[in-house]
Amino acid sequence: MWTRHHKRRNTGRLIVPAISVVVLSYFVFHAYNGDYGINAKARYEQRIEQLEAELGSLSGARRELEERVSLVNSRSLEKDMLDEQTRRSLNLVQANELVIFRH
């Protein structure tokens, strides 16, 4: 009776370690570069600095606008004059109005 002996291949020994290395490298990559990874904190801090700078500039612009609006109150300005200047600066009239500007 004849028996066949199969030669052992080295590729079978490398399959499990190769798959393990691929899976491990996937998790290491995402632990470093992912949304909650090591680099995420630096990106979040940089974004916070940008948004705080934008908030500062917007707060300053808001303060200026609030000061300008506070100057326009019902005691210090005539409503017809306010209406006229608003229409002139925005170039808006209603459909049934006729506006004649004199310089």
Question: Strands, helices and their partners?
Answer:
Elements: H1 11-33, H2 38-71, H3 79-90
In short:
This protein has a domain at 15-74.
Task: Give me the number of helical elements.
Answer: 3
Low-pLDDT windows of residues: none
Q: Kindly, what is the distance between the CA atoms of the first and last residues, rounded to a whole number of angstroms?
A: 121 Å
Q: Total strand count, please?
A: 0
Task: Please supply descriptive tags for the structure shown above.
mainly alpha
Give a verbal description of the structure.
The protein is mainly α and 103 residues long. It has a domain of 60 residues. It is built from 3 helices and no strands. It starts with 10 loop residues before the first helix and ends in a 13-residue tail after the last helix.
